[in-house]
Amino acid sequence: MGKTHSHPMTRIARRMFELLEPICLVTFCADECNEELAALGHRTYWDGYFASRAAPLGRVPAQVVHAAFYNFADGEAARHIPSAWETIAPEASVAARERGSAASLRRILGAGLAGSPGLVRAADLTTKAATSAPMEGRMMYAGMRSLAVPSDPVARLWHSATMLREHRGDGHIAALVGARIGGTEAHVLAALQQGIHPPESFGRIHHLPKERLAAVMDGLRERGLVDTDGHFTDAGRETRQRIETLTDELATPPYDALSPAEIDDLITELEPVTATLVATGSK
């Protein structure tokens, strides 16, 4: 049991994921971030994505980015790294991502909510949590922690929410590795969890070679995680749930820094922000 209310901390971690994820998604769904990255000279969406997200790690080779991101197919990182940095400094990509994401939030939330005392309080508490967790074993989170926290409340909220997203993502990868679920396999399980069938049609993997997808599905069948028709088996469903539960458990450390009253405040102040973003699809 955790410190907050009568709820386990894993429930708090899951609730915070639900509240913070729409804030982070403006980076990928709204136009402003892509426009900022394109203005720097990044030729494609994925050039900007790989360059700006990996940049906190420094000028690492594609193999390191592939390992840290985990769920991209072999060779995908190498199509963008390090070429995306050859004429555009990583620091410039990081700054462009922050500017675009903050601009998206201001547009979607409107002046009233973006400039409200509640948003400032949410930004402060999110930052307190995001800067309080251990960094060991958290590559992407540690990279984000190396960056300066913005002073502007809207940018600070986005930045700290993104830190927590990367912290959770690092833990999720640890859970996947422990369950011997590779990146493409994880997408298959996620697709089935969302009711997508056949899972190979999922947007994150449908572009991969058919032979590669067939090999992944065959491997999951051999392990008894999907049946001959490509649906979950009981063992597959249980494996997926075990990974999600462990991901929640591993995502709890940042929230140990907040008192029960602070967590109550944070949830209360984030709810209208998240509701507004969800209503627009974070676009």
Outline of the structure:
This protein is mainly α. The chain is built from twelve helices and no strands. Helix 1 packs parallel to helix 12, helix 3 (45-54) crosses helix 5 (90-114) and helix 7 runs antiparallel to helix 8 (153-178).
Description:
This protein has 283 residues and is an all-alpha fold. 65% of the residues lie in helices and 0% in strands. The chain has 12 helices and no strands. It has helices spanning 9-29, 31-40, 45-54, 62-69, 90-114, 117-130, 139-145, 153-178, 183-193, 210-222, 234-250, 260-280. Helix 6 crosses helix 12 and helix 7 runs antiparallel to helix 8. The relative contact order is 0.16.
Helix content: 55-70%
Number of strands: 0
Low-confidence stretches: 1-7
Radius of gyration over all CA atoms, rounded:
19 Å
Could you spell the SSE succession in H and E letters? HHHHHHHHHHHH
Shape assignment = globular
Structural class of the helices, strands and pairings? mainly alpha
Q: Main sheet, how many strands, which sense, barrel? A: none
What is the oligomeric state here? single chain
Distance between the termini: 37 Å
Distinct helical segment count: 12
The whole-number mean of residue pLDDT values reads 95
Question: In what range is the share of β-strand residues?
Answer: under 5%
